[in-house]
Amino acid sequence: MSDTAIYEIGKEVYLIKSEEHDFHRNIYLKKFIAPDGTVKNMIFDPGTKLDLPNLLEALKKLTGGIQEVDFVFLSHQDPDVSANINMILTTAPRAVVLASLDTWRLVKMYGLPEKRFWGIENLKSETVKIKKTGHKITFIPALYAHFRGAMMVYDYESDVLFPGDFLGGLNTRGGSGIYATEESWKGISLFHQLYIPCNRAVQNAIGKIGMLPKIPEIVAPQHGDILKGKIIETFMDRLMQLDVGLDISSDESDRELIILALNKFLEIFKTQQNESFTRLMTELKKPGEFTTFFTISEDTILNLKISEQEAISFFWETTRKHIPQEILPLISALFVDTMEEFGIHIPHDIASQVKKYAVDEELFS
């Protein structure tokens, strides 16, 4: 096993990041260290069985071993967050689970003992002190973002917010590193469109964050890039305006038109370039490390799971990346012509790419 990559993102806050390219998981450890040397260790969303080797190695380096874990915070119940909890409680005799009552109602089905659980709603205050170290943390409800009992937690010492799935995203930023750039926004918007039920849930969660004494310096979600500095407010402002979940389905006529246009493009593409068409459909249907953005039956798109413009952009990017470069000018012209035939606006980034190619439209007549 290779050395586990560990990143310190705040004062005594460490990131253990999984290795997936498209959609990775982030596990966090916070060491609360008192002036007298007393240490309390908290894990945030301890991940899946796939993460266990790296988690064990990181804990050995940072705390002396998993047996030194004192608290495990679960933002919600999904197995990519909670699958390791039984093993932790078995191995770490002092460890207790901190989660909402709704989360506990589901994770206790791993066979967890009730006495090892502290329900956040049952605490006397949302802001609590860590016993024997004096550090303060605040628990923040994130109702339906994306689970009814979702919780966030803010650590005052490090100025880090741990929001669980909220403010997380797919990996759309190029290059190495762990911090979000403008390129990260697309992955965040796609993730929220798929998994947050409505914008009201987004606004509620952001409103709760706004009730903290200050906007956190760092936001550490369970998926995607770490948000740091001014980009946090920038992305939260955009999310406040973003249609997600049920909001996206408000204009069925537009969606139907786009679905018809994409299927018309695929029909012609199949006739002209059958081998490339087969490769493209394989990519469109493949869930990979995340999920599909379209509902597809055989070779026909039945529905979109994201907004119309995001669907067009994603469809084009997938097409561009998975067809031979020598036919790209022809396919670019076909795509533009088909969208224009149905009166569909093409996103600016696609239009700019297509301008690179000069092609005789009669080749597809």
Describe this structure as you would to a colleague:
- By secondary structure, the protein is α/β, with parallel strands linked by helices.
- It has two domains: 6-247, 4-Layer Sandwich (Metallo-beta-lactamase, Chain A), CATH 3.60.15; 251-364, no CATH class.
- The protein is built from twelve helices and 15 strands.
- The strands form three sheets. Strands 1-2-3-4-5-6-7 form a seven-stranded mixed beta sheet. The protein has a six-stranded mixed beta sheet with strand order 8-9-10-11-12-13, covered by helices on one side.
- Strand 4, helix 1 and strand 5 (69-73) form a beta-alpha-beta unit.
- Helix 8 (252-272) runs antiparallel to helix 11.
- The longest helix has 21 residues, at 252-272.
- The relative contact order is 0.09.
- Mean pLDDT is 90; it is low at 358-365.
